[in-house]
Amino acid sequence: MTACTTAPKKTAPLVPKSLIQLKAMSLANHLPIPVDGIQEKNLKDTWGAARSQGRNHEGIDILAPRGTKVFSTTEGIISSLKSNNLGGKVVWILGPSGAWHYYAHLDEHNHRLNEGDYIQKGTLIGYVGNTGNARHTAPHLHYGLYLAGKGRGAVNPYPYLR
């Protein structure tokens, strides 16, 4: 008699058809602000600001209370729900035109999401925090947009959110 065990949950593979369709779509000229309750007048363009170790800021910081909901600015495929030293808890989404959307310093991910999930614009992806190298700052979302690959070809997302 064998013991009954539950197999670990596997992440869905990136479906080639979805990738082809996403890459064929155009990146919208205007994206919704990803933080619940934040309006355009509350945004500050923090692109290019000096950061530690001689880096420049590759995104926009959107200040909000810890735990404020963060939504996807686009439909796409969840590529990563992990943590790293700089961004803390992060979400990477591959969206239309092959653009990569990066959400960092989250307090928590949406635990119902899995890598490989295809999501729609407006899907809850996490909650504002100050994880990673932002642990000594006010809670905020770092939102980055990359057009030449995951983490490559950063562009200022500020004009897209206005």
TrEMBL record:
Annotated protein name in UniProt: Peptidase M23
Family annotation (CDD domains): M23_peptidase
Gene3D superfamilies tied to this protein: Glucose Permease (Domain IIA)
Pfam families listed in its UniProt record: Peptidase_M23
An example Gene Ontology molecular-function term: metalloendopeptidase activity
Residues of the M23ase beta-sheet core domain: 56-149
